[in-house]
Amino acid sequence: MFVRLAIMFLFFTTTVVYSQVKSPELPDSTVIIRSITVTGNLLTKPGIIARELDFKQNDTLLFRRFSEQLISSRQNIFNTRLFNFVTIDTSYDVAHHLVDVKIVLVERWYIWPIPYLEISDRNFNVWWETRDVRRLTYGVDLTFFNVRGRNETLKILTHFGFNQNFGFTYKIPYVNAKQTVGLGLGASLMLNREIAVATRNNEPVYVRNDSVYLKKLVYAFGECVLRPDFFTTHTFRIAYSHYNIDSSIRVIPGFSIVEKDVQQFASFSYFLKIDHRDVQYYPLKGFCIDVEINHSVPFKTAHNSYLKSNLRSYHQICNRWYCSSGFTGKVSFERIQPYYLQRGFGYGRDYVRGYEYYVIDGQHFVLSKNTLKFAIVPQQVRRLGFIRTTKFNTIPMALYLNAFIDLGYVYHDPANDPENGSSGNNLENSFLMGYGLGVDFTTYYDIVIRIEGSINRQNQPGVYLHFIAAI
């Protein structure tokens, strides 16, 4: 898991998204959109905003449907992450069934030289056990959001320390007149002096060499993104990976399946995302489905082909009560995989709560996460009067108490075990369960702080800290 120094830096400087929609109660009749005006978009091109609206000028709509479209359009605009505030006001000429729409925006600050601090362990809790500063990656992400006012993003990476990474990405959301096709490209050089070479007793084993890089990776990609509607995105990516692995670790049983220091392959992937969540970084209502298919073409080295899918659902039960569930499944197409390409539980969001300290290797897995939460402090906005600019003087916050239960299973093919069962990885091919209580604090845009106490199936208690939503 990644933890950025920017969390503290942005705590008092980053931006907020807040919105409202106002409309009177009208009978179930039609309305005609007479005008749409947009103010506050000093840099953002009008077409970028119009792309997110669920209606256009001169449309004739049922009022009941129009009320829903106002809400969805507002959500679409602030989910572009270009604005601090999105306010949609309407004024009606009831006699003639006409409506004027006024959209008021406050743009974000778009150029961020963001200090970067990465914990190179799988999550903060694992790193905190040793607090080894040598395992930190630090640097600067120079990010230009909303380049040319067209929601394009340029990111330049300069990372030093444990995982050295130098590269760039550039993403253009739309290149055609209908604003349905986007492009992206990027390249990077990653250098490692310490890497995990095996898993024993459900924990990774690391090898370090301060005189040479144990692994070098050159990675480049190009992608085409299709967005035919507000909620559906298709991403087609072609990538090239060139690994240079030091022979001292390549010969470790299971780490590699070919006797070559240079291992390279091209990969072709397709990613489908259907996203109907209200707020992407911490949703309370809606659902999201994504499917990823990745196929690699090796140059006489290793395959890395798999199918992975996520289904996440969020519901408001009543007033301050919410529930959410997530299901994730992965199937790999190769029976035997090199260790450095295996990914089971223990990375990103793919883990059962209560097992944060463990890595569970495998080729296939299923995971179910379930949460019931109560808003102790519902979403509210505080204003800082001593800061004059609207870009920085508003703080949203919310606090949630939650109860959860997670279930999971990782299948590890014995053919991938070079130690023939003596590695002590007893969580593989075993039913996993974790449950507990937690508190989620949300503030600013994209910042989530979670503190959870949990017990796993092995009756091991623990308290864990995370910085992304669980589901």
Description:
- The chain has 471 residues and is mostly beta strands.
- The chain has 2 domains: 102 residues, Roll (Ubiquitin-like (UB roll)), CATH 3.10.20.310; 294 residues, Porin.
- The strands form 3 sheets. Strands 6-7-8-9-10-13-14-15-16-17-18-19-20-21-22-23 form a 16-stranded antiparallel β-sheet.
- Strand 13 and strand 14 form a beta hairpin.
- It is globular.
- The relative contact order is 0.11.
- The N terminus is likely disordered.
In short:
This protein has 471 residues and is mainly beta.
- Unreliable stretches: 1-23
CATH architecture of the largest domain: Beta Barrel
How many β-strands, per DSSP? Answer: 23
The class by helix and strand makeup works out as mainly beta
**If helices are DSSP runs of H or I spanning 4 or more residues, what is the number of helices?**
5
When the domains are counted, the total is 2
Helix content: under 10%
Strand order of the largest sheet: 6-7-8-9-10-13-14-15-16-17-18-19-20-21-22-23
For the record, what is the CATH homologous superfamily label of the largest domain? membrane protein fhac: a member of the omp85/tpsb transporter family
Gross morphology: globular
Task: Compute the CA-based radius of gyration.
Answer: 24 Å
Strand content: over 45%
How far do the termini sit from each other? 14 Å
Q: Would you tell me which CATH topology of the largest domain applies?
A: Porin
Main sheet record = 16 strands, antiparallel
Overall pLDDT score: 86
CATH class of the largest domain: Mainly Beta
